[in-house]
């Protein structure tokens, strides 16, 4: 394999990973995994966590680390990749 076919394979792996990552709202992560690991990276991105999570207040889709819900306006505190739900009175 010469360097051109190596480069084309990596580009194809990355592009496919990017497409798969889009379904998970993680296109960049998908492209990186695709380039690094090829088909194994695709499996990782398909089986991996979604880049979005529902708002604990209204259920609207949130991007990871989004500071405020676009639908209900609630401000979010993120703990280990999950938004904290409504504050309980204790
Ligand atoms: Zn909300």
Structural description of this entry:
This protein is mainly alpha-helical and 90 residues long. It has 2 domains: 1-50, no CATH class; 51-83, no CATH class. It is 46% helix and 11% strand. It has 3 helices and 4 strands; from the N terminus they run H-H-H-E-E-E-E. Strands 1-2 form a two-stranded antiparallel sheet. It has a two-stranded antiparallel sheet with strand order 3-4. Strand 3 and strand 4 form a beta hairpin. Helix 1 runs antiparallel to helix 2, helix 1 (3-23) packs parallel to helix 3 and helix 2 (27-37) runs antiparallel to helix 3. 19% of the residues are buried. The model has no long low-confidence stretch (mean pLDDT 88). Bound molecules: zinc ion. The site of zinc ion has 8 residues, from loops.
């Amino acid at each position: 394999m010469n360097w051109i076919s190596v480069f084309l394979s990596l580009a194809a792996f990355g592009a496919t990973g990017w497409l798969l990552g889009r379904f998970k709202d993680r296109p960049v992560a998908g492209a990186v995994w695709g380039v690094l690991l090829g088909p194994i990276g695709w499996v990782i991105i398909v089986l991996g966590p979604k880049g979005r999570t529902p708002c604990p207040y209204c259920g609207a889709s949130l991007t990871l680390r989004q500071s405020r819900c676009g639908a209900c306006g609630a401000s979010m505190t993120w703990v280990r990749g999950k938004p904290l739900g409504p504050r309980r009175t204790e």
